[in-house]
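Problem: given the chain below (87 residues), write out its structure.
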Amino acid sequence: MTSLNISLPQQLKAYVEAQVAEGEYGTPSEYMRDLIRRDKELQREKLEEKLLKALASDSIRIEPHELEGRSIVALVQEKLSARSAKR
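Solution.
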């Protein structure tokens, strides 16, 4: 495992240490890793929601040839961005 040093204001450092002291986490690193995992899951859920909305929308059409060499996620994100830019 690699390391990453971060600087926190005293109030945030105290908060992290309090979370560890409550016993759910063994170390500040475990707490930070959990926060990052939760954030990644939240971002995945937001993306999934956007994709489902796009797929339910008549305004996004995907032709089979557009998928050549690309993921559907990237293609839908591109189309959503293009649609937002037009507004």
